[in-house]
Amino acid sequence: CEVISAMNVEDAIKMAIERHPDLAILDMRMPKNVESAGLFSPYAGADICKELRNNLSTRDIPVIMLTVMSESEGIPESLEAGANEYLTKPFNPDELLKVVGKYIK
C-alpha cells in the first residue's frame, strides 16, 4: 500500500489524475493552491471530489471525506459532491480502518 498526500486542492486533483489512487481521503478544509497556504476554503474537499467525479479517469475512486464536528453542515455538501463516506474529526482510528476496508481489499 502506497500513501501519497497533497497539501492543497490543485495538487490533490493533479496527483489523483496522474497516480490514480485506490482511495482518496479528503479534508473538507484545505488551501486552494500553494499561494493560498494558510487560507483555507471551507468546502475544498467537496471541490476536489466534484473534480474527481467529473473526470473519466478518476470518477470511480472511492472518496472518504473528513470534517470537524463544528462543520457538520459540510456533510451534505460532501455527499452531494459524490463522497462515498464521511467521518467527523476527531475520529477513532479503528473507525477509519473499517471504512477504508470497505473499499480496499
Q: Can you describe this structure?
A:
This protein is of the alpha/beta class. The protein has one domain: Response regulator (Rossmann fold, 3-Layer(aba) Sandwich). It is 37% helix and 18% strand. It has four helices and five strands; from the N terminus they run H-E-E-E-H-E-H-E-H. It has helices at residues 9-19, 44-53, 74-80, 93-103, and strands at residues 24-27, 30-31, 40-41, 63-68, 85-89. It has a three-stranded parallel β-sheet with strand order 1-4-5, sandwiched between helices. Strand 2 and strand 3 (40-41) form a beta hairpin. Helix 1 runs parallel beside helix 2 (44-53). The longest helix is centred in the N-terminal third of the chain and has 11 residues, at 9-19. The radius of gyration is 13 Å and the shape is globular.
Offer a quick outline of the entry.
With 105 residues, the chain is of the alpha/beta class. Helices cover 37% and strands 18% of the residues.
